[in-house]
Structures are given as C-alpha cells and as structure tokens.
Amino acid sequence: MEVSVLKKNYLLCILMLFLYVSSWNTTIYANEYEDASKLQNIIEKSVAGDSIVFPKGTYYGTIKVNKPLSISAAETTLTYDADATLLIIEGENVTIDGLNINSTHPHYKHRVLEMYGNNHQLTNVNIETKSTGIHLFGSSDNTLSNLTIIGTTPEVQNGMIQRRGNGIELYDDSNDNHIIQNHVDNMYDAIYLENVDRNVIEENIVFNSRYAYHLMYTNDTQIINNESYRNVTGTMIMQVRNTIVKNNVLAEQNQNVHSQGILLFDAYDTTIENNTVEGNRIGIIVERAQRNLIQHNFISKNFVGVQWKDSTENTFTGNTLQANVVQAQAISDTDSNNNQSAEQSNIIKNNFWDDSEKLDLQGDTQSDLTYKINPYFLTLTDERPQFQILFQSPGMVLLEQLFSIDSDEWVSDESPSMAPLHTVNTDNEQSVSLITVSILFTALSSFVILKAGVKKND
Predict the structure, then answer these.
(1) What is the pLDDT of residues 348-382, one digit of tens each?
(2) Which of 3, 69, 127, 411 could form a disulfide with 330 if both were Cys (CB 3.0 to 4.6 A apart)?
(3) Which domains does the chain have, with CATH numbers?
(4) Contact criterion met (CB below 8 Å) for 106 and 131
(5) Is-contact 163 131, C-beta < 8 A?
(6) Shortest CA distance to 354 belongs to which of 418, 306, 413, 412?
(7) Distance between CA atoms of 330 and 280, rounded to whole angstroms?
(8) Residues 6+ apart with CB under 8 A from 401
(9) Taking the mean position of all CA atoms in its chain, how far away is CA 13?
C-alpha cells in the first residue's frame, strides 16, 4: 500500500513539474515579446491626422496602417517569423519615423513591408531580413529616406544557398517616388524598379548585393549621387528611356565573372554623366543601346574600361580612361544596307586615353593621332567564351598586336584629349596627415643621424 501511494505521489510531482516548466517557458516568451495587437489597437483607436508615439518594446506579429497618421517608433521593434507581411501601409499621407523590423522568414518572396496608396513618408526605419524588405505596388509620390536594410544570412537547403530578397522594390505604376539616403547591404537587388516612371534614386549607398540599382522597363528615372561597392553590378539599366545616371561612385564590382560598374543594355536616350567608375571587372558596358550620351566620366583601374557591343548612334565624349588593364573593347554586326559596322555610327571623341600616342600640331589640346580600339579579343571570346581565361596573357597580347588588318574599320576616337579631363578626388585631411608624418619622420631621422655623429666624435 505504501509503495502504491509513493508511486502516485511520484507521478504527481513529475506532472506538476512538467506543468510548471511549460508555464515558465510561456511566461518568458510573453515577457520578451508583447503582442503586436497592442500596437494595432492604438492605430484603430486613433483618428485621421493624429500623431502617435508607439511604446517602447519588442512586439510579435503584424500591423496595418490605413489612415493618415504620423507615427514615431524609435524605440519599437516589430518581429515575426510566419508567412505574413509585418507592416502594411495603405491609403494616403501615412508618416512612420524610427521603427525597427526584424523578419526571420526565409523565403525571398516574403515581404517585410508593403506600401500601397500615395504620399507616404517612411524614414529612419531599420530592417533586418532574409526576404524582401520594402515592396511598393501602384504607390506614388512617396519619400523613403534614411532607411537601413540589412540582409541576414540566407537559408541553406539541399546544399544550395537560397536566394535573398530585394531591398526596396517598385512595381507597376509606382511613380514619382523619392528614394534618398538609404543604406542597403547583402540583398539580392538593393533597389529594383520595374514598369515605373519618374522616380528619383539619390544619395543611397549599397554593399555586397547582386545589383545595386536595377532598372527594367522604366522611363525618366534619375540615379544621382549614389554609391555602390562590392556588388556584382553597380547600375543595371535595361530597356529604359530618358534615364539620367549622374555623379555616382561605382567601385570594386570585381568579384564575379559578370561584374561591371554600369551595364547599359537596350537603353535609349539615356545620359551617363560625371560618374566615377573605378576598380571594376568592366567599367561600362554598352550593348544594343541607341542614342545615349556618355560623357565626363572618370573610368579608372578597371580590368576593361569600356566595352561596346552592337550599339548605334551613341555619343562617348569627354571621358577620362586611366590605369585600366585594357582601355576599351568593341565588336559589332555589320549593317547589310551600307556595309558599315554598328559602332562606326557612334560618336567617340575628345576622350583621354592614358595609353594613347599623342601629338598636338594644332595646339587645340586634342591629339592629331587617332586612338583605335582593337576588337580581336572580344571577337574571339564572343565566339569562344572559354578563351576569356587568356585575358592579357603574353600570347594573346601578341596576337592582338599582329591582328591589324582592316584597322581603319575599328572603333576609333579621332581626336583624343591630350590631358586628363578629371582629377582624382583626395582626402585633404589624409594628405595633410601624410605630409605631417613625412616631416616628422625626416626630422627624427636627421636627429638620430646627428646624435650618432656626435657620439662617434666623442
């Protein structure tokens, strides 16, 4: 009898301990994450035009804002791991300042924030995600500024790294938006635009993504004063019209076989102006493009400075090509109507090529010696891509030098500039520091030498 009672008591203790531990785990979860419905209740109780300050804390779940409100949320974090959008903005005139969002959902098509409607302002929002950051659909006249979007390490399934989502993406008539001073790192395409017009991409900085700025089927887009470092491609411009790419820094896109600073593909009436394109695999690629203006760019330290393929009626002028392994490559199909290559219809003039032979008999700062672009390597690798492994090998260089037949038909700059048209920007403080260190080092060396001489004489 006593043994039976002891067994019952023992089992009862185990049951109570199990219930206690289960309750303890639930309590920790509840204390760590408040339910996001608390934030939703605050939104629901507000009226149009109200200013709201979200309470401090981390909230688990999703919220929707569908009325004109001004929300401050600098100390608020929204988190969720299920397949649902964490924040949906609808209607008009919603302002959100300072929200932190953390999404752990692994699929790239999952969206952290969706924006519909018009005239919204999103600022100082920080997003960490494995999926897509911000999605605009039919949403116009919005301002997205001072956002930080960081892609976390993607999932590995069946030995394959899963695709990351885009940082900011605009689709289908999301027009006249201003995307300014945002930081995007480790996403698929950092800023992606498709079937949208008249958007301004300004003063953003992008790292470690596939494409930093990617345009598809857009018109009248402006990409101004942005920076791109260590991405596969800095700016991908495809099937666009009337785009302006100006005053950007596109550097260090060189870790992928398809890396380039700017790719202008099937683009029309676009201006590429005053950009610094430095340290990339290929600086600028112009392919199947027409009537574009490429001027006053500083193209330096790339494996290939500029590459032309099957493009017509473009103007390439006033650019500085300096310290590139190969300055330029060009191939084209022949126009059967006039037996003229496509590239010969382009205007290429007044560029500075640092490896060119120069002679100025007229005193007009332009060389009288034509700069010709040898098509041999690009022609060869276009037909046999595997020969790219021979890039700048001694044998290939020799073959290029021997391949001079019909050089009059090569793409040429008829009037190269005698001197660089750009100066490299330097950090004044760094220069002053270097001079100061040099002076101090010289003074110290002189002192040591003099001291040693005095001791020797003694």
Answers:
(1) 999 999 887 777 777 777 887 888 776 545 555 55
(2) 411
(3) 49-354 (2.160.20.10)
(4) yes
(5) no
(6) 418
(7) 18
(8) none
(9) 60
